[in-house]
Amino acid sequence: MSRTTRLRRGLLAATLTLALPALAPVAAAGKAESAFAAVDPMIGTGGDGHTFPGATVPFGMIQLSPDTAMPDFKHAYKWAAGYQYGDSSILGFSHTHFSGSGHSDLGDVLVMPIAGDVKLDPGSPDQPGSGYRSRFDHKSEKAEAGYYAVTLADYGVRAELTAGARVGWHRYTFPKGKPAHLLLDLRPSIYDYDGKVLWSSLRVRADGTVTGGRTTRGWAPGRQLYFAMRFNQPLTSRSLKNRETAVPYRGFAGPGNRAEDVDAISGRALEGVFDFGDLAKPLVVKVAVSSVSEDNAVANLDKDGAGFDFDARRAEAREAWEKALSTVDVQAPAGTRKTFYTALYHAMIAPGLSMDVNGQYRGPDNQVHTAKGFDFYSTWSLWDVYRAQQPLMTLLEPAKSNDFVSSLIAAQQASPFGILPVWAYQGMETWCMIGYHAVPVIADAYMKGIRGYDADAALKAMVSSATYGPYGGLDDYMKLGYVPIDRQPEAASKTVEYAFDDWSLAQMAKAMGKDDVAATFMKRAGNWKNSFDTKTGFLRARKSDGSYREPFDPSSAGYGTDYTEGNAWQYSWYVPQDVAGLMEALGGKDAFVKKLDQVFDAKVDPKSFAHVEDITGLIGWYAHGNEPSHQVAYLYDYAGQPWKTQERLVKIMQTQYTPTPTGLVGNDDLGQMSAWYIFTSLGFYPVAPGSNQYVIGRPFVEKATLKLAGGKQFTVSADHLDAKHPYVGKVTLNGKPLDRTFIRHEEIVAGGELHFSMQETPAKDWGSAPGAQPYSMSDPAR
């Protein structure tokens, strides 16, 4: 979601004989580095990847990371994760971040270690010494899963960060001979540096614990975040400052500062300066957060933050990541392993824990609730993650999937509107993007046998979301069978995305024996046809009188058009539940394949998307940097030509991922771009979550073993996997020929081996026989 339009430099020419890192021969000698060592958190921190390099644990509440800029909202896109690899100075270290989002917010509880004189404003990166920010060099950085370190050049301070589930840990080694200080700035937000804080508080408690919190008017209006902070060394002095009446600075003006020598302070522009004198040993700082209260933050710190052993906490973070990453064992060249395991790392950051040690969390009604029998998770980029990231978790983290579904149900029950989350974080709703895509997340989990929640409550929540008329034109959608463009923007996209969500709801209802509900939503699943113009061969938006909007330009994209973050060339393929029906609407298999070829082979000037942040990674009209295109390469399978899917996947894998800071061509979107890479590397992809089918592409790793629930293992292997053998010759499942172009979820979780034999030329007979193609609702026999 929200990506800057560009073609990444260095796109390779479209030939299948080019050397591809993923296809290079595996070295015969030497042992591959561990999965943990293969992770490089710097991947995606440059360009439009929007990932952060700092410390976190799998699905944790804390994302402790450096911030290089927190500009005003109009310029915040590039810094949606707070950090850009191309920057040369660090503003400080804050405790909450999105991983790969296309929108900005968070950056809570910013701290900066300072040696020597203290400046109270960040200053300009173009004017070193003008504020408290410090220059740094990438050579001094070290980033690994759960740990980050850097030397702040202007202060000579070595900064180290690690994290637990609810606590962020800092260790600062100061130079001798200079007084050590820690600056706490409650003004900054990645949404906007200042002016977005509605209220904040800061105090030093009798035992030396620093607590506080703030309410912000950011992406989720009225969001509350509290913290508790402790140090391993005593304070020599401290001052609390309200800068709201400070010298003129970006929205605040007036004479002087207020209230320094007090124990507590409140206002809209607070800072604290904590002094430690000349330190003989490193300063360790630990910080817990809570969306509920200061007291809950203290409780989180008491329970999850005992002691001050930084190295022990770093070891625990490493252990957590080693366990999470061990769910897949991959044999591949070093570069491919780095990309693969970093993708797995990024896919396991969100959704994040959003619940305190006492079970309390803040819901979308901005009230405090208590989870019973599950852990509450938030940070849901649902327009993105339902496609592959959440299906990946059903395979690798089914217990977490139970908690994820329970969290979605709990959020719906606390919603003032009675609907499931759309794009939520820390329990609060933003209403960003379209669709009701929590529905396929729940349906996919249910269909795969993940049932540790109240299924009736889940179905009720799904139906409530799918029938809430005021949301996104649903009232018209239910009456007309489509969303009218004269009443709702991006109406064509909304129609087809609603239709897929309806289909997934119908699958779950049918499996539960709720035939009336299933029939209602199965009928709605066919609504995509009401916005598909068979005369032009494109998805188009209709007006409320039934006519298509004119004039029509299939290349047109951007807000105000018929589509969300795309155009007709990209969105006309979004019928994952009924590809056979789409094929028929386009005039049959030959016409379908011809038009697919036009998508990939078109000569498209990337400047035509200069006004749209979101469309990146162009291969013809195909835009890999944005989610509506993610299933398109796999659609040749439905036409009995899987060898063309294999060709297209080679080009995508060649050009869209590299093990570098600019190695993600678009926003990672909380792990969706990464999950696409993982599935594609394994040789299959969940085109239609809820179908329990994965569409077969081709593998890009020599061997991978999935460690599944119940001690089961599923292995994907390939022979002749190199650049000279780009095509699948044959496939076997547990030693028996597999002639269909899909594999079932049940076959994977039962354990076994999927083996690919690769060859030089296309195997045009494999997967072409009737019945070999994946599921479509127009042809449900499969």
From TrEMBL:
Residues 1-24 form the signal peptide. GO terms for biological process: carbohydrate metabolic process; glycoprotein catabolic process. PROSITE patterns: TAT. Keywords: Hydrolase, Signal. Residues 762-782 are annotated as: Disordered. Residues 296-759 form the Glycosyl hydrolase family domain. It comes from the Bacteria. This is Glycoside hydrolase family 92 protein. The lineage of its organism: Bacteria, Pseudomonadati, Pseudomonadota, Gammaproteobacteria, Lysobacterales.
